[in-house]
Design a protein that fits this description.
Length: 376
């Protein structure tokens, strides 16, 4: 039902509009349910704003903050247009807030408050069973509404076939999609447009926001994923951080204490330990050794690192962007690579090791003497 001349007014404290409830603000929640009923924009006003209803217009006045207001109740109220009768729904055990439908062709109504507005209406028809009018009146009721929203979402996720080990220790925002057969461990928070495919698993302590996790992918304990994609069969973590723009192909492995940002990793590639990969395109079946970093920022601009397929980067290497490593190339451990490496070439960029026999005792003696001088 849409009433082209329906004027909708929502009355609650202005700062409450941005309060989040399971991932959606109070304002977003009300706009989603109310806007389909009218071609007119919704007016959000303070609770003490005067009410003025003119003739020849339908009005829907929402007096209170009701995050779970639903379409069915609004349809019941708007049916009053058929009979030319005003209708009201009150929250449980209260009659100083609620939702009122006032049909066109009524006498003009003006009031200084919502209760005064109710007093001006005659033959008001009450709608029973208004369980959706759980009201927010402050921080305590906000927390209760949050928990109620999370409980509703969890019931939906379980009903649709996901496997959740500890439902009361998992928080899933309403915009998240969890397919049947996905597995979720305790103390997990899923937010935004996150999507878990069938067979995907998210282990204890992980936080995902706007992340897509494909079939069979594993998110191990204590990972943070933001605006990223994880391919089928890939493994992330534990203690990994995928930042915005990260895309992992099939069977990719990103291990403990690895951070990625705007990085694409081709199928079968792996970065198992202690690395930072930023602004990089990494081909298929590459190995990124422990301690490798892409030096992508020069203080003013970000630069790209590009690896072909089958590249091996030894541990503790620095790839100074912009730089390209060709297919099958090899970077020796401890190298600082500042120039492109051709396909199948070996890059060694480190100082030659020197051995000074019996020098260790001399160094220790000098260090002791210096320490003794400081102690005097």
């Amino acid at each position: 039902m849409q009433l082209s001349d329906l004027h909708i007014q929502v009355r609650f404290e202005e700062e409450w509009a941005a309060w989040p409830i399971a991932g959606l603000s109070l304002r977003q929640r009300l706009e989603r349910v109310l806007q389909p009923f009218s071609e007119q924009p919704i007016a959000f006003v303070a609770p003490d704003a005067p009410i003025e209803c003119k003739e020849h217009c339908d009005y829907l006045i929402v007096g209170g903050a009701f995050p779970f207001l639903d379409r069915d109740l609004l349809l019941q109220l708007c049916e009053g247009k058929k009979y030319g009768e005003p209708r009201v729904a009150f929250p449980s055990r209260r009659q100083d807030s609620g939702v009122v439908f006032l049909p066109a062709n009524h006498a003009p109504v003006a009031a200084d408050s919502f209760t005064g507005f109710l007093d001006r209406l005659f033959d008001l028809t009450d709608i029973e069973d208004a369980a959706c009018l759980q009201e927010i009146t402050g921080p305590t009721s906000l927390s209760e509404a949050n928990q109620a929203a999370f409980d509703r979402k969890m019931a939906q996720v379980l009903r649709e076939g996901a496997l959740v080990i500890a439902p009361h220790q998992v928080w899933i925002e309403e915009t998240v999609t969890v397919e049947a057969g996905a597995q979720i461990g305790p103390n997990v928070y899923l937010a935004g447009e996150t999507y878990l495919a069938t067979g995907a698993s998210v282990a204890m302590g992980s936080v995902l926001r706007d992340a897509v996790v494909a079939f069979g992918a594993q998110i191990k304990p204590y990972c943070v994923l933001e605006k990223c994609k994880v391919g089928a069969g890939a493994a992330v973590g534990p203690f990994a951080h995928l930042r915005e723009g990260s895309e992992l192909g099939e069977e990719v492995k990103v291990g403990n204490f690895v951070e990625t940002k705007k990085t694409v990793m081709g199928a079968g590639s792996k970065a198992s330990h202690l690395s930072y990969l930023g602004d990089a395109v990494i081909g298929r079946d590459c190995n990124i050794g422990a301690g490798t970093i892409t030096c992508n920022y020069d203080g003013f601009n970000k630069h790209r690192t590009q690896l072909g397929d089958g590249v091996f980067v030894g541990s503790d290497s620095q790839l100074v962007a912009p730089v390209n490593l060709g297919d099958g190339s090899y970077v020796a451990a401890g190298s600082t690579v500042t120039h492109d490496v051709p396909a199948n070439a070996l890059a060694v960029a480190r100082a030659r090791q020197a051995i000074k026999k019996d020098r260790a005792e001399t160094i220790r003696r000098m260090a002791r003497k210096k320490a003794e001088g400081r102690d005097k």
